[in-house]
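Memo to structure team: turn this sequence into structure tokens by end of day. - J.P.
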Amino acid sequence: MNDFKLRPHQEKAVQAAKPILERSGVVLLAMECRTGKTFSALELARMGAKGGRVLFVTKKAAISSVVSDAEVMGLEVTVINYEAAHKVDFKPDFVVIDECHRVSAFPKMGKAAKVLREICPRALGVVLLSATPAIEAGSQWFHAFHVTGRGPFAGYASFYKWHKDFGIPAKIRIAGGQEVNDYSSVRPEVASAVTRYTVSMTQEEADFKVKAEVVPHLIECPQLLSLGNSIHRDGIIKLDNRTVVAESPAAILQKAAMACGSTLIDEDGEAFQVREGMFPKLNYIDARVWDGRSHAIFTQYIMERELLLDHFGDYATDDMEAFRRGEFRLFVGSIKSYCEGVDLSWLDGSMILYSLTFSGSTYAQILERMNNFKRTEPIKIHVLMIRGSVEESIFKAVSNKQNFNNSFLKRCRA
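Reply from structure team:
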């Protein structure tokens, strides 16, 4: 006999979600990272599937964790990643869509969303999971619910028809001076409608004693600052017999940010280190951050990771399992790859963000990787930035999105 029991806060979330699911066939669990939303969703699936088959869609890196959780609960579940959703050859009685912000692209549906739109409406119920729902723009709400075939906007056949009623018309100017429609802004009624289908759980409600403490570090480096400013001003620079071209506003932003990490990409698409000896962030980690304990360093770009691995030599690895076994003191990885489904709460050191992502949802989720309800000591996440550079603006933007996400979660409590 399986003696698994939900924790009190998970049971509270399930009891709040159950009537929503029974009434409408869909519920969004907007639960912060590490609060156990997978167990909560699986319990809802156990009740809602009525003995039938359960399909759990998640990212590839999280499959083994979900399978393990289901085994602990004694529940048989088919777990697949988004890219394999088209291979589902059975009619599931219940569907769980993990990290549902992955199917919320707009105005056009993504490939995975189209596949799930064919699967979900036939199921008895659907649970949407995300710690960062619609953090980038209000229009993300539409396709997240649209793939289920039910929910607050079930009467709309397409995003464009929905946006005509709920969107705020706007234009944006792109390269060359051309104006295009901006579909990101929506009326306040959208959030109110979604709230009726949502159960949230913050880490405070799950009895977390401490949360991540973000520590920004502004590093002086006039050379890299000047380099980034030149890219922003001219869109093209010559450096060490290479030509760097930024032909659009997005490319200018990306390459100005890359320069802050001492790497760039030339016109042939080849990544390179900016200049021998000009590595202020590496020097700062050596002098001010690393204390010999286990730390995880995350970056936005591949060349930055190569730079870090080369600099720290035998102390560092990009192999998470070897790091967990204690064979290395530093882990170097991609922010995008490790923002979801990875538990770093066991670290005795801190997390270091060598460079910043432009995504508010990725930033919000990477902050939670080290949180755990058992921890009692402050958790530090060091954010390294070149003073006066575009990185300061990126940090402000993603921090504001994190604050917005937190305020939404608190409005939809279980």
